UniProtKB/TrEMBL annotation, chains A, B:
It comes from Prevotella jejuni. GO terms for molecular function: acyltransferase activity, transferring groups other than amino-acyl groups. InterPro entries: AB_hydrolase_fold (IPR029058), Esterase-like (IPR000801), Ig-like_fold (IPR013783), Ig_E-set (IPR014756), Mycobacterial_A85_antigen (IPR050583). PANTHER family: DIACYLGLYCEROL ACYLTRANSFERASE_MYCOLYLTRANSFERASE AG85A, ENTEROCHELIN ESTERASE-RELATED. Gene3D superfamilies: alpha/beta hydrolase, Immunoglobulins. This is Enterochelin esterase.
Length: 400, 400
């Protein structure tokens, strides 16, 4: 055998590489996005035939305020600049460290950046993503620290009558020691699923980094699917590569909360977790905050830490014609929960959040019971930018 | 609290939903792709301002053969048809069940299908994907069967001097019983990483389905990262959201094979796996076949099953100025390996594969030792379509 012959030739022949033939050498030269030294981003697209290319993203200057004020979630499209070679570019002003999302609009067609392999799915849309700095003091970046394990695992939910999928994070060291860990149940919002906290929320990076810095206790984090009629994230269940929708059947009608004990039972049977109130936390964003609230209200002995991020308070639908028992006698349930003195009820919301009335009602209900919750009001609205920050703050307060 | 008020209004207010405002109601009406009853696919794009929209994918008719013959990996772009409303469409002829990849080319800009949330990354490119039928007799679809767990886990590689990431599949039931399982080490090709067999290879679905049907033994499948200088897949390591490249430093120079015992040691310490030759298999595609071959040649007592899919045989570079001991005395190592009579050496390759000379050399080396390997020659070339099929065939032959 000629076993010493190099075979660089194979590189050119890989069928998928061949399939990726560049359309033009000028296209091949483009790198996008580029994070510049001053934390501005340059986005580029080679599109000599396009008449108009716009950039839309949650880092764009709103245009109506001072240059250092970026609207949260401002996706107002901005025209990119075309050069003589057919390259369109736009460089933003310097940005705050953050995990940003964007799209390009090419003659009216909204696309992800073809040169950027990093995308996230949010409900039924894909966005290109770029990490500027580390985001909230570096917590969103993968660093050279011990890493936890992320599992996609299926459990049986007899209450839902389905096999269902969840994401489970175990901290670095879980595989090599015999310790039992406290556990955080971390719930997503409407239209997304058990992928969301990991993919959009950078939960893995936040936990790895905070645990490595000694700022958060090592914990197991369970991220179930909150759409009770759904087995798993789109494409991961037996219904195939379906179109994702915002709202699934049985949304916020009591059925997810009713089936929640199936999740706790599976987790406490399967993983080395501590099984008492002192070592259980529950938190969620938007619909997940709503779920967390009602699960805690209906199980007042179960959770010592409750995190409500941009939380909904009002249910969305009835279970058939009936109001679920989950949502009955709520005032009484607030009284009972507060009497049991959970160590922390932590509330976070943006000042522009459309759920601010829900926030008022939630705090009024706790005030009525003279319960001293923690409250963080931030800039911006109903966005992952806030929820990543809330998670980063909340997990540092747990199990201490 | 007005807890009985429905709040459908929130749907319209979710900031990211608002960000996803449709550009036009006609765009909002489009569903793409659609798999039709006859297994043809219809791809659609709303692009009234585009002058030319083409479709490129590995399902396109080569155009030079009979209509029932599809070239493997034929990405020859085909012009789509524009209607009066600005909608471009193309319907393929009926296709064989398969997990297909495609892109659209809009006035020269190659994009993923904006209406299709399902994409895969292959090296530095993203493709839209569509599953027609189940692929190889339904094995590529998620079915209503018991599902295994997929983990992304980090291990210490003292030989590489890095923390590194691997994907580990454990079969349904692993968490709830005390059995020990046989283990398959499954290696990827050049330019991809520990995500590839799961994302492009549908390994999770293939294993879940074959185990549920009783056609494969329940087994643990370990999918490490074969780029020894790399911690993890792009974006998952501490170097950040880097640009993916085809070839990483220390590719096929002996260093991955040398560090492979770190992987076995971690797996046998961490998971309930059987630790003898009879219960170990190793397989890989292209560079991963090369790795599998040399790991087996250098560890002739370790693996009872060896799978070489479109395998390279010749190394690519030296470890510095020196030829690694891994690649020395190869004829002798073939002799030793064959004398140890591994139960199965399984070779699969496409008739159009550019590595057919490597395949000839490999079989000649085994023939010289009168070793009776299994050999499958299929249509097509160096493609995931073949590798998914080879995996589906190979795993049915293991540990029986």
């Amino acid at each position: 055998m000629k076993r010493f012959v190099l075979f660089f030739a194979c590189l050119a022949s890989f069928s998928l590489v061949a399939a990726q033939e560049v359309l033009n050498w000028k296209d091949n030269e483009i790198v996008s996005p580029i994070v510049n030294e001053d934390n501005s981003i340059t986005i580029s697209l080679f599109a000599p035939n396009a008449e108009k290319v716009e950039l839309t993203g949650n880092f764009l200057y709103a245009g109506k305020d001072t240059p250092d004020k970026y609207a949260d979630g401002d996706w107002h499209p901005q025209l990119m600049n075309k050069d003589a070679n057919g390259r369109w570019t736009l460089t933003t002003p310097p940005l705050k460290p953050e995990f940003y999302s964007y799209n390009l609009i090419v003659d009216g067609v909204k696309i992800t950046d073809p040169k950027n392999i990093y995308t996230v799915r949010d409900i039924g849309n894909r966005y290109s993503v770029v990490l500027v700095g580390g985001g909230v003091d570096g917590l969103y970046a993968v660093k050279n620290v011990p890493h936890g394990t992320v599992r996609k695992v299926w459990y049986d939910s007899p209450t839902a009558g389905l096999q269902r999928r969840m994401t489970v994070y175990t901290p670095a060291g879980y595989e090599s020691n015999k310790r039992s860990y406290p556990v955080l149940y971390l719930l997503h919002g409407m239209g997304v699923d058990e992928e969301a906290w990991e993919e959009l929320g950078r939960a893995t990076q936040i936990l790895d980094n905070l645990i490595a810095e000694g700022k958060a206790e090592p914990m197991v984090v369970v991220m179930p699917n909150g759409n009770i009629s759904q087995e798993a994230a789109p494409g991961e269940g037996s219904k195939g590569l379906v179109v994702a929708t915002t709202q699934y059947p049985k949304t916020m009608d009591g059925n997810f909360e009713k089936a929640f004990p199936d999740i706790i039972q599976f987790v406490e049977k399967t993983y080395r977790v501590k099984k008492d109130k002192a070592n259980r936390a529950i938190a969620g964003l938007s619909m997940g905050g709503f779920h967390s609230l009602y699960i805690a209200l209906n199980n007042p002995n179960s959770f010592n830490y409750i995190g409500l991020f941009s939380s909904a308070v009002n249910r969305m639908s009835k279970d058939g014609d009936t109001l679920s028992y989950i949502y009955k006698n709520v005032d009484e349930k607030f009284k009972t929960l507060c009497k049991k003195s959970p160590k922390l009820i932590w509330i976070g919301i943006g000042k522009d959040d459309f759920l601010s009335k829900d926030d008022d009602r939630l705090r009024a209900a706790l005030d009525k019971e003279s319960y001293k919750y923690s409250y963080l009001k931030t800039k911006g609205g109903h966005s992952w930018r806030n929820w990543r920050e809330y998670l980063s703050t909340f997990v540092q307060k747990l199990f201490k």
